[in-house]
């Protein structure tokens, strides 16, 4: 029983340090709660208003990927596409047999592999629902600050000496 007290005291001390740091950095609301870039001033127990839906990009321009193996984004509107267990409208353009006619890029060869790495004649059921990895884009300001650096920039930056 005495073991739980040091853990509890350590946990409380850690929380106090985090809250004190947030207050020192001005990350609090006028009501005293912590502020979040995604939640705004909405308390954790409440559901805030839904953000406005912004127009999606519809350029058909292939975007540069930020890291190896990043799924490409969907550069066109897909709102009216049927994508369920019976129909995958994405494959009407991106299937191997349709790319000559549509001029759309063919789905990656990885989409024809089963979980054991064996190649199939058609798209694997594991890769059938495109929007689980591929997403449309909107030109919006990120809701939270981000220090992401793409892999090419990272590789071209000189390494800093270890301390």
CATH topology of the largest domain: Flavocytochrome C3, Chain A, domain 2
Shape: extended
Structural class: mainly alpha
End-to-end distance: 41 Å
Question: Which blocks of ≥5 consecutive residues have pLDDT under 50?
Answer: none
**Helix content, binned percent:** 10-25%
Q: Name the CATH superfamily classification of the largest domain.
A: Flavocytochrome C3, Chain A
The biggest beta sheet is recorded as: none
Number of structurally distinct domains: 2
Number of helices: 4
Count of distinct strands: 0
What oligomeric arrangement do these chains adopt?
single chain
Under the CATH scheme, which architecture of the largest domain would be assigned? Orthogonal Bundle
Provide the CATH top-level class of the largest domain: Mainly Alpha
What is the overall pLDDT average? 82
Tell me the series of helices and strands, N- to C-terminal.
Answer: HHHH
Radius of gyration based on Cα positions: 24 Å
């Amino acid at each position: 029983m005495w073991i739980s007290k040091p853990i509890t005291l350590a946990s409380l001390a850690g929380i106090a340090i985090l809250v004190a740091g947030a207050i020192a950095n001005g990350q609090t609301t006028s009501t005293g709660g912590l502020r979040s870039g995604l939640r705004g001033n909405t308390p954790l127990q409440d559901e805030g208003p839904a953000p406005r839906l912004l127009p999606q990009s519809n350029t058909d321009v292939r975007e540069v990927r930020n890291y190896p193996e990043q799924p490409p984004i969907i550069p066109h509107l897909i709102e009216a596409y049927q994508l369920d267990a019976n129909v995958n409208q994405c494959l009407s353009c991106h299937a191997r047999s349709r790319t000559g006619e549509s001029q759309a890029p063919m789905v990656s060869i990885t989409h024809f592999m089963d979980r054991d790495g064996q190649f199939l004649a058609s798209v694997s059921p594991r890769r059938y629902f495109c929007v689980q990895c591929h997403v449309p884009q909107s030109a919006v300001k990120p809701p939270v600050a981000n220090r992401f650096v793409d892999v090419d920039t990272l590789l071209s930056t000189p390494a800093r000496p270890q301390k």
